[in-house]
Amino acid sequence: MSNHEFTVADLKRILLEGAGADENVDLDSDILDTGFESLGYESLALLETAGRIEREYGITLDDEVFVDHPTPRALVAAVNELLLGSVAA
Q1: pLDDT averaged over the chain?
Q2: Which of 73, 78, 20, 13 is nearest to 44 (CA)?
Q3: Other beta carbons within 10 Å of 82
Q4: Mapping DSSP to helix (H, G, I), strand (E, B) and coil, where does residue 35 land?
Q5: What is the Cα–Cα distance from 22 to 40, expressed in whole angstroms?
Q6: With 50 as the cut, is the pLDDT of residue 1 above it?
C-alpha cells in the first residue's frame, strides 16, 4: 500500500499507461475541471484507471467513483480522502 498523496501527475500517468490519450486532448493543459468524457475517456478506460489506482494505492474505489467525481480534480480529492482514511485506520 502506498501512503503518499495522489496527485494530478499520478492520475495522468495512470490514464496514459492504461488507456493512452486522445490525440485531440493535451493532458498537459489545464484539465482539472474537464470531464473525463470530454478528455476522451469512456467507461472501459475509466474502469482500467480505477483498477490501476486500487492496485497501486491499496484502496477500494466505489463502483460509482467516476459518476460521483467526473473530473480529475474531483477524483484526485476522492482518492486522497480514501488514502487519509486508510492511514488513520
Answers
A1: 90
A2: 20
A3: 20
A4: coil
A5: 6
A6: no
CB 41, CB 49: distance < 8 Å: yes
30-34 average pLDDT score: 94
What are the grid coordinates assigned to 77, written together? 480529492
Whole-number Å distance between alpha carbons of 14 and 65: 16
**What tens digit of pLDDT does each residue of 7-27 get?**
999 999 999 998 887 777 788
Among residues 38, 44, 36, 1, which one has the least CA distance to residue 19? 44
- Which residue, chain included where needed, has cell 484526485? 76
Name the nearest CA neighbour of 81 among 67, 65, 70: 65
Which residue, chain included where needed, has cell 472501459? 44
What is the model's pLDDT at position 77? 98
Neighbour tally for 6: CB within 10 Å? 22
Nearest partner of 51 among 39, 63, 41, judged by Cα: 63
Mean pLDDT along residues 65-75 = 97
